[in-house]
Design a protein that fits this description.
This protein is of the alpha+beta class. It contains five helices and six strands, in the order αβαβαββαββα. The protein has helices at 2-8, 25-37, 65-70, 98-101, 114-129; strands at residues 13-16, 42-44, 80-85, 88-94, 104-105, 110-111.
């Protein structure tokens, strides 16, 4: 109830499925809970302003290393899902495993993936300005 109140008042929630498994327990549980609390997730089109909030991603969300080979399934999720309220993304859901891509590698003092770090900037800018 508190989370719903916060979202209704303009809050933003980003949920990232670290397991990258569309049939996994986390995915099933979180999608069910999101639907129960906020309504169903809908596909976010590549033309959404999120993909141009600061950096431009004309093809939609950037892929991750885990999508391409990390889990051995070569499954690429071509879009993100969201719950929108009053024309803004209130909840953004990804099963692309951005969390691992955004790790800072202390050994070489770099982020793991440049495009995905830039996409993180887009998410923050969008959340703060929409």
């Amino acid at each position: 109830r508190n989370l719903r109140t916060w979202i209704d008042r303009g809050g933003f929630l980003f949920v990232d499925d670290h397991n990258h498994d569309v049939d996994g327990q986390f995915h099933k549980t979180v999608v069910e809970e999101i639907a129960r609390t906020f309504g169903p997730l809908t596909r976010l089109p590549s033309s959404h302003p999120l993909y141009r909030a600061f950096f431009t991603f004309p093809d939609g969300p950037p892929t991750t290393g885990l999508e391409l080979n990390g889990w051995g399934d070569d499954l690429v999720h071509e879009y993100l899902k969201a719950v929108t309220l009053d024309g803004r993304i209130a909840l953004l859901y990804s099963n692309k495993d951005y969390g691992c891509e955004w790790d800072y590698d202390w050994r070489n003092k770099r982020f793991q993936r440049e495009d995905n770090t830039r996409f993180a900037v887009n998410i923050v800018v969008y959340a703060m300005t929409s």
